[in-house]
Model the fold of this input.
Amino acid sequence: MEISINGKKADIILEGEKTAGDVLSGLELWLANSDPRYNNGFRLSGLVIDGEKAGADSISAFFDRDISSITSLDIIITSISELVAEALMDVCSSIDKFKDLDYNAKLGFGENWKTGPAAALLLEQSPELYRLITGTFSGEGAGAGDLTAIIEERLRELENPSKELKGMEQLVNEISLRLEDLSLDIQTGKDKKAVETVHYFSGIAEKVFRLYNSLKNSGFPVEEIRVTDIPVSVYMGEFNNTLKELLQAYEYNDLVLIGDIAEYELAPRLRSLYAALNSPFTAAA
Done:
């Protein structure tokens, strides 16, 4: 039996396997040890057996087949980014169906959606987005239109992270200025504006982190980037710790500490991180 991965012959040596199920049981471990793509955000997503793609209705029967009866096995692996994008497209279709249902039909829609593969993947890869989706489908969360806008934004992040990153420059500048004014806003009683600034900043920081992961999963050597001469992964860890300090200070209503962290730590850190991540694409423009 000839084994290939995405159409390219793979150097897999069989040792005593008798059925196709035996082969597949050790396949994930082999991929993890032998194919760097699999350790960088790829998943086993399909099988082509003797030129015929295995479907959900035929895969169980395939497991019991003797390998001597199989001429070729092509293993399909797909990036997490592509799988998540497919799941998000599924959500868009589900939203369209949901909007057209009457009240009674909507009641069970969310529970049915949770049983599908898109829900399982999003629960694993993006729990907060999963909660937003299930909230909408339960009638207790964001409206269908708002959820669609969020899903479309996430799709843009996956499909063209560098473009999405470049488009954030004004947002990063605006929130950095607001962080620098946060202490004054608190001292002058502008509590509503202060709360908005913290939430606004958290959303932008989360988006920058998501784009970092999208670039990494797309194969861009983002980990080679340095921020103020610090490896970007280390810098992001420090950034995240500082963000936790701000949220903790906010919880304890430590106004002085909130202002100091926002102005002297997070504002310059956000500017530096954004500039470093965006610099390869700015230079190439």
